[in-house]
Specification:
Layout (H helix, E strand, L loop, with lengths): L1 H8 L2 H11 L7 H12 L1 H26 L3 H7 L2 H13 L1 H9 L5 H10 L4 H23 L2 H6 L1 H33 L1
Helix pairs in contact: 1-3, 2-3, 2-4, 3-4, 3-9, 4-8, 4-9, 6-11, 7-9, 7-11
């Protein structure tokens, strides 16, 4: 609790910047940042700060890839067969798959941001998918992580939360498998 008070004393800037930087450095634990924000600032403010940072980071990564996608480094990535197939598939299907993928906390959003940046999807369409998809994902994490002591003190609630996390993970994986099959079939 003392650590959360110290974190809160820095104000909202770190609460926005940590999820923002996770878009550039996907090994950073977004789940932990969102939980820290909701516990330090409350459910709603913590959720909003995390959502702003995460969406801002995703859109900036998309715009950087969109602008510099023709450079030598990104050309190597763009020429990868799997990335090429995903890019063409996103060009045809646009908003829906991006929205669905970003709703789930276990989706590698850095990959989604890069592939979308290499595709021809419009900035508006991508931004809308990010704003709405991450709204669902960040709120889910916020709600689960808001009251950590009750997760320890109420084992039934912890079990329910773990089941929900597993279901989200499983559904996300099933959607990912379906999307991969659809990409292969469309590009086949």
């Amino acid at each position: 609790m003392e650590l959360l008070k110290e974190y809160r004393s820095f104000g909202p800037i770190p609460a926005i910047l940590l999820p923002f930087f996770e878009a550039f450095l996907p090994f950073l634990p977004l789940f932990v940042f969102v939980m820290a924000n909701t516990n330090a600032f409350g459910l709603w403010l913590g959720f909003i700060l995390s959502w702003i940072g995460s969406c801002g980071g995703a859109i900036v990564v998309f715009l950087i890839v969109r602008k510099y996608g023709h450079t030598r480094v990104l050309t190597i990535i763009r020429k990868n067969k799997q990335v090429e197939r995903l890019t063409h598939w996103l060009d045809r299907h646009g908003f829906g798959p991006i929205f669905l993928l970003l709703c789930f906390p276990f989706t590698p959003s850095a990959v989604v941001n890069i592939v979308a940046g290499l595709s021809h999807i419009s900035v508006l369409q991508y931004s809308l998918a990010v704003l709405i998809g991450k709204l669902v994902m960040i709120f889910t994490i916020s709600f689960v992580g808001y009251d950590i002591p009750s997760l320890i003190n109420q084992p039934i609630r912890t079990g329910v939360v773990l089941v929900i996390i597993f279901i989200l993970w499983y559904v996300g994986k099933r959607i990912e498998v379906r999307l991969n099959k659809s990409v292969e079939r469309d590009n086949g």
